[in-house]
Predict the structure.
Amino acid sequence: MVSATSKNAARTGVSFAAELMFRDLHLHYGDKHILQGIDLHIQPGEVICLLGPSGSGKTSLLRVAAGLEPQTSGVVVMNGREIASDKIFLPPEKRSIGLMFQDFALFPHMTILDNVRFGLTTMSKAMSKQEALNAIRRVGLEHHVNSYPDVLSGGEQQRAALARALAPRPSVMLMDEPFSGLDTRLKDSIRAETLAILRETRATTIVVTHDAEEAMRMGDRIALLNGGRIVQVGTSGEMYRAPRDLFVASFFAELNVFDGVVKNGFADTPLGILPIADNGVARNVKIAVRTTGIEVRAAKKNDNGVLGRVTARRFLGDFEQLSLAVSGVDEPVRARIRADELPYDAKDVVIKVRNNDIMLFETTGDNA
Ligand SMILES: Nc1ncnc2c1ncn2[C@@H]1O[C@H](COP(=O)(O)OP(=O)(O)OP(=O)(O)O)[C@@H](O)[C@H]1O
């Protein structure tokens, strides 16, 4: 676990961040193709989130990076050196990698100090104690040095697990759903603290999550997986504003999707003729409108425009979720409006779509 560089790292108090690269990585279990040609280049010190639905291969990719699973083909490169290929396979303990899983996996019969010291086997006793105490201090658990894990809250256990993973000053941190065991309120603060600590240690980090908001909060970039392939890699802004297909778009925002015809910069949809940045030939397309991009106001007598009827309304605190029946649309149109924006007795409404919340996708391939 302790890398050749860790002597220097001990002086500077940070890890030496590694550059990590996956090249045309495949993983098969029998005839099941779990990873299918993963190409990903992660910069030193970058925090990248692997996002995707259940079974898309996120954990498998993390296990290959850690050396817990040999890939079927392809190459893993760290700092320009192959660490897993058809010629070489560096075992996990030689990769300078810190691992953290969702169940924290603390040893129940050991104190927090001993849990954190566990991976520091190559150091002297005094040095490993000092390093463990540093890591425990860094996560703010100094008052629990001699406690056993069962007296710690979920959030404290998460921090203890983080201290244990960081104590050997790994060059790469691999985290599999590290916040999924925590309740929502705690999750936000622990996530922010963890990110701050990762920045401080400068370890290159891969975080597995199935939660798009979590990926947006944590990742410098996000790699979205589906069926063992990376569908798109980008910053949260790129993924949200310029999704390459409907799958990506629907991962980052709640959408209404309509069949429409696009022509001369306008899309003809059940929500009206909408302006679209497109100069292509006239054709059938899928039009996606974010639920946050639908404005409603109470309809007046003889109002024209696109009319809808509120069929359900749910108060969510800052927002309200509306279901609207709109003529020409089979499914209810969903809108997310600011709470109390629409009078409570309003049943008939006029609908307007904000231009920035309209996205167009070709009806070929995955979007069909
Ligand atoms: N040891 C194994 N043998 C056979 N199939 C496996 C094995 N491990 C994982 N799989 C399969 O590989 C696929 C990807 O699993 P993986 O755990 O990587 O997905 P994931 O995206 O992390 O999912 P989740 O979010 O549910 O954890 C799944 O279909 C899973 O059933």
In short: Residues 1-13 have pLDDT under 50 and may be disordered. Residues 6-246 form a domain with the Rossmann fold fold (CATH 3.40.50.300). The first helix runs from residue 6 to 12.
